Amino acid sequence: MTLVRVVSVAMLAGRGWWFVQEKVLLGLPMLGAAAAAAVLLAGPRLLAARRGRGDGRSAGAVVSVLTAGYAALAGLVVTFLVGYPLTPSTALITISLVCAGALLTARAVTAPARNTADADLVQAPKARRAISRRRLIAWTGGAFVVTATGAGTGLSFLPAAESVTLGGGRGRSSRAALSVAHLRGASSPAPGGTVRRHVLTAKKATVRLPSGREIDAWTYNGEVPGPAITANQGDLIEVRLRNADISDGVTLHWHGYDVPCGEDGAPGVTQMTVRPGENFVYRFRADQVGTYWYHTHHASHLGVHKGLYGTLVVRPRDARRADEHAAAEHLDLTLPVHTFNGTVTIAGRDGQTARPTPPGTPTRLRLINTDSDPHRIVLAGTPFRVAAVDGRDLNQPGEVSNVGLHLPAGGRYDLVFLMPDTPVALVVDDDRNGGLRLRPHGDVPDDAHIEDTSDLPELDLLRYGVPAAVPFDIRDADRHFTMVLDRGVALVDGQPTYAHTVNGRGHPSIPDQLVVDGDLVRFTVVNRSLETHPWHLHGHPVLVLSRDGTRSTGSPLWVDTFDVRPGETWEVAFRATNPGIWMNHCHNLPHAHQGMMLRLHYDGVTTPFAGAHGGSAGHGH
């Protein structure tokens, strides 16, 4: 078994040091030493017994073999409960516990025999037959003192509230503080733009799906999804959020939209939580074209799941007039995919929905994953292009067909095609009985058979489209942060739990990542866990550089959410040009709630909202 462990660790080492650190530095050395002792103590007696000389029994042999077992078990426990990074205190605690186990075993097997059967079990020399109770207490007491000391040392991993990590860049400066409360959006549209005003009231409501099923939902304006917000580039978007009866409180976060930090909707960081009877006004200019969405960022693992989300679409201004004349000749559908207790809905409709679409109609399907898990999307019946990912256009995307699309939690894909004279089906998670049907002959039902989509290959977006110039050279990066995602015992909001961790810690004890306005920042994101983590940085799109060491060779891929699957390592980069304090977290929202969240902190920016209306951002998420 030790040899098997060595081989498995050697194979994991090919994925990176992050996957084997505690195994190489603690697990294998501890197991190797214990196993070697077992071979030396038990081996000769067992070999002699095999040759007919004696029975091989020895108290020392029993203790050594069991201690090797304790060491093997301890190594596995460290991997599953602590993970990365290995600290001296963790190693000290582990070795102390193994030694304590060995002492207790020695006490048990060398205790004076009470009957003949016990005497036959272990024949130890009379002088070594028993360890005195006083000696056992002294030895084990010493081991547990060391363990307790180590545990105390282990608790010192909690950083102070002002703790930051620098990523190889310069530290804090003495520049004057700038509050996020002053980082607000524009108050007027761009020349030629208009003001788009909305009022969103968060309230509980019973929502009836087309199937007749009723859902006790949390809604904006009694709708799920909430009202669609649309604008043309340069317009001013103004949204007044009111809370009618959501006792936990609500906010609005504009997912993927690079608003000024004061409009970001992160409670305890950029604003106070909006409690029942209160309101808050968000205001920002629609400078960013594409497909986005909004959702609450307070207790979002509950609020978003129960329905507090909606869509945001911004179209190019130069296309406005053309769109007004050609609206009847184009089909542009915004399709948020959301799951209510196992029922998948598309744009608030469950089951299968159909829409008449004349042949030759230019069609755009804007897919938005509002869930915490990825969805597999298949467009059957027509070739298509993935025109945009996370609201950003791809460069010369090629036409594809018979492929599956992996849509991360929080992610968006824009699919474009000309409607053929045969039906087109949008299939979600290989459910051929649900989804969307586009019918070329009006509302006449079609009998078109949809083949099984589960075996279709997945489109690799890192190799899709045509390369183009990017605005920076990553070799000039000012800071490089590594985030190792795992599970382990950690403090989350002051409570010990089996958390989703970043570098072995849970929110809010994870140090902030300090940047300076203008920095070129590189992230290495490593997933040591057995679950997929959709990573999402607020306020900035990131450029995907590589996955598992293989560089991106297609169109420059700018995303705000990317799925890091088990065992994967992603490299991404961005330019820090949007000052503020930004959440940086897993967008599987229960994972974020359970600790997998930290902050990107611009030097000199402060917040007056920490602890307000629900406490830190840990409570806020």
Word description of this protein:
The protein has 621 residues and is α+β, with helices and mostly antiparallel strands. It has four domains: 2-157, no CATH class; 164-176 and 468-620, Immunoglobulin-like; 188-324, Immunoglobulin-like (Sandwich), CATH 2.60.40; 330-459, Immunoglobulin-like. It has ten helices and 35 strands. The strands form seven sheets. The chain has a seven-stranded mixed sheet, with no helix packed on it. Helix 1 packs antiparallel against helix 2. The chain is globular and about 95 Å long. Mean pLDDT is 88; it is low at 116-129, 150-161 and 612-621.
Note the main attributes of this structure.
Immunoglobulin-like, 7-stranded mixed sheet, 35 strands, 621 residues, 10 helices, disordered C terminus, alpha+beta
